[in-house]
Amino acid sequence: MTAPLDHTYLAAQSEAQRAIDYPYAAPEGAFVLRAGRLTALDDPALLGGRTAVLSVGSNRAPVQLRRKFGDDAIVPVTPAILHDCDIVHAATVSYYGAVSCTAFPSRGTDVMLNVAWLDAAQLAIMHRTEAIGVAYDYVRMLTGTVTHLPVPSAGGDIVAPSQPVFGYSARSGVLDLGGGQPGGLSRIPARNRQLPTLAQDSAAALVQAFVAGIDPDLDLGTDRDRFIARVTDDRSCRLAVNEHLRGRAISADGPWKVQTVDADDIAAFL
Questions:
Q1: Selection from 12, 148, 9, 180 nearest residue 80 by Cα
Q2: CATH classification of 3-267, choosing from 2.40.170.20, 3.10.490.10, 3.30.70.100, 2.170.150.70?
Q3: Mean of the per-residue pLDDT values of the chain
Q4: Is the dihedral of CA 111, 63, 127, 172 positive or negative?
Q5: Residue 178 — pLDDT band, cuts 50, 70, 90?
Q6: In the chain, where are the structural domains located?
Q7: For residue 7, is pLDDT > 50?
Q8: Which of 1, 29, 107, 129 is exposed most, by the fewest CB atoms within 10 A?
């Protein structure tokens, strides 16, 4: 990979852009985030001893991986397909103002995603940034749910079909667009999509209007900038917004199994 890709996928973001541009741009194929730059994945040995973590939202994007792990990190990433699921807006707003996302069952739909291969310290950081036990559960994908795609630059089929794949599922459930139907993220490519799609700005506008209608005292305003400012600057406001959203949530149970994570194991790396 060349410098222009660094510019495309690792460009600096303002705080407002973090919310507006979510879930950010990601390469279609494999790559390695190494010392703050993108390079080709040409050595399958880089995957050894690491945990395969399915990236369904912003974790697909080099800019988010760099933000979480820093310029000294080495993070190999391989392409994958998630079967019989879509990626939809979750019933929660992040601390930086984005309407988060999560996987949701959708029979016949294939989503083009990637897998980040994390060492033990990186996995602990990922757990913390995903707020497991609070915002997300750490899950193991059921066998056959994820297909690993070839990596030509590293020799082709470098990931065994039996490789365990883990991920994260939103505890809040998913955002109801109306009539008990969630909405897929329009920026994440999928085949045979069954659900309507919604851009990030539209999802935020829906949340803003819904919560303002039932709790005008939160003073969310009517424009996007006001909404972002309120939920990022005032934690109590954001918590109230998310509490209201839980009353409009749809269960996000899917083809995965929640894993138990020892808090002491996480703390050991932080």
A1: 148
A2: 3.10.490.10
A3: 92
A4: negative
A5: confident
A6: 3-267
A7: yes
A8: 107
Backbone angles phi, psi at 230, to 5 degrees: -65, -45
pLDDT of 8: 80
Q: Is 203 within 8 Å of 89 (Cβ atoms)?
A: yes
Taken in order 127, 36, 102, 166, is the CA torsion positive or negative?
negative
78, 26 Cβ separation under 8 angstroms: no
What is the predicted pLDDT for the residue at 5? 58
Give the span between the Cα atoms of 64 and 223, in whole angstroms: 26
**Which residue bears the tokens 């994007």?**
61
Quick check: pTM over 0.85?
A: yes
Instruction: Give the sign of the dihedral formed by CA 78, CA 97, CA 196, CA 108.
Output: positive
Residue 268 has pLDDT above 60, yes or no: no
Distance (Å, whole) CA 230 – CA 208? 11
